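Progress report, Aim 2. The chain analyzed during this reporting quarter is listed below.
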Amino acid sequence: MGKSKTKSFQTETKQLLQLMIHSLYSNKEIFLRELISNASDALDKLRFKSISSSKLASLSDDLKIKVIVDEENKTLTISDNGIGMSEEEIIENIGTIARSGTAEFLGKLTGDKKKDSNLIGQFGVGFYSVFMIAEKVQVLSKSAQKKSSQPILWESSGEDKYKLTEVEKKSHGTDIIIYLSEENHDFANKQRIGFLVNKYSQYINFPIYLSNIDEEEEVINETDALWLKPKRSIKEDEYNEFYKFISFDQDDPLLTIHNKVEGKQEYSNLLYIPKKPPFDLWNRESPRGIKLYIQRVFIMDDAVHFLPLYLRFIRGVIDSSDLPLNVSREILQDHPLVDSIKKALTKRVIDALKKLKDNDINAYKEFWKEYGLVLKEGPAEDFEHKEAIAELLLFATSNKETHEVDQTLDDYISRMPSDQKDIYYCVADTFEGALNSPHLESLKSKNTEVLLLTDRIDEWLMSTLFEFKGKSFINVAKTSNETEEKPKTTKDQNELLTKVADHLGERVSEVLPSSRLKDSACCLVLQSNEPGIQLRKILEAAGQKMGDAVPIFELNMKHKLIKKLSKIDGKDFKAFVDFLYDYAVIAEGGSPKDPSKYLRQLDKYLS
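Predicted structure tokens for the chain:
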């Protein structure tokens, strides 16, 4: 060894080292990611400089990273044959604030250990994370550019000072030798280190060799990231195998969406729609399946900010060249690039689903069966893509007396008569309940098609859509759909309507003659701004207190039961009005307040 000298760290760097050693223990394993990323940068620099330097060109062959585990002596060595550092560069890169960004890092600290540890790397302080697990660190480096400079050994225990010693080193590059502290001896385990390399650095652009000391080394990473390859060079089997690798699914995906964006923003995405949804699909708080990489370096598993909630079933990878390494979730939330990527990915997924629907309706029906309910959350959450999402919705209709949900809004519009200006829909708990709803009777008599909606979310969905391609949505059970004039009534009929209204009192807002009823005796009609039974259940489940609905009670003045009503009086009249009211409540999917009373009345009238 040659001459040695000892130097003091800058004040801010001392603070940082103490923080690493004593405070930021929430995710110690990231030290390996940071050191491998630094090694990759050193290799990239040499490769880049070798393009313009013939002297360096011969040094840029066989670039690699080595990770050597010494289980006996409890050390780890991360070695690269990259650009290397001279003494001045070691002091500049490791010992001073100018390059490390230490002051800015310290200024961003919040006191929350987990959040703070996520800042490591973002400000170029990734090297110092090694002191979370080390009692001593040595950095042995030889510059590839400055042939005359002596190789240097930098050594520190993370306290006030570091030592520099001139040494011998045959090859250019940098070796980092980590002497593990006692409580971190578990990192001197080849299997664990291999797992961490695969977790964080699987797609670094150089081979990573792992070995125990004096053991043959093996490459443990995939140097070609699938998502960065041209689409034309990837076989379907490769896409499917990668999907199974990241999702732990045994089935092939239903759909693969692969894009690479270059120019003002640079990122790649490889997204998948699984054939079957995850078990926690309905837990909106559960982790999503998008993995974030930055320049091939794994950052996080659950990158929730890149797709809206209604696409939470998507699995896959996003790799950005523009985001800062090791961004925190808080930074992602406000980063303008994230919002831009989110809009582009959302449109890409919607376009891919539209293409699937147009080209293979049977495959699309399989998708809809599994994910249709989640997609129905979209129009309320994503105004920008509301109409595009509406094009993807499938419905059952009164045009086909089967339960099959296979009609689009465009299908419906294509069958509309030229004089029909609106799209009609009926909400009920069951297909039969919707198909046979009294509200459809007048429309059926004119052969007007009606969408039949039976999912719990449907009324909420339609309350957010309003219109589609210039056609308004009309709920057949509400006043806003009434386009015909009320039937003319006689003096006796008007007196009957008033008498019924007097008895029902606050249970109804009005009692009116009906133009919508052809076969049924009566029905309840909601005001246009009143939530229906489905929506009331959703709002009540969410903790919102709902008062009693006050509907309009419509009577079919030509029906035999209403004619019978006009001929009775006193207690019998009141009992029969109550019976008709409960009859209408049941037709709407509700329950009478006194079911046993209703059944006694039904018994009486049937006998």
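Residues 9 and 253 are 53 Å apart (CA to CA). The first helix runs from residue 11 to 22. These observations will guide the mutagenesis work planned for the next reporting period.
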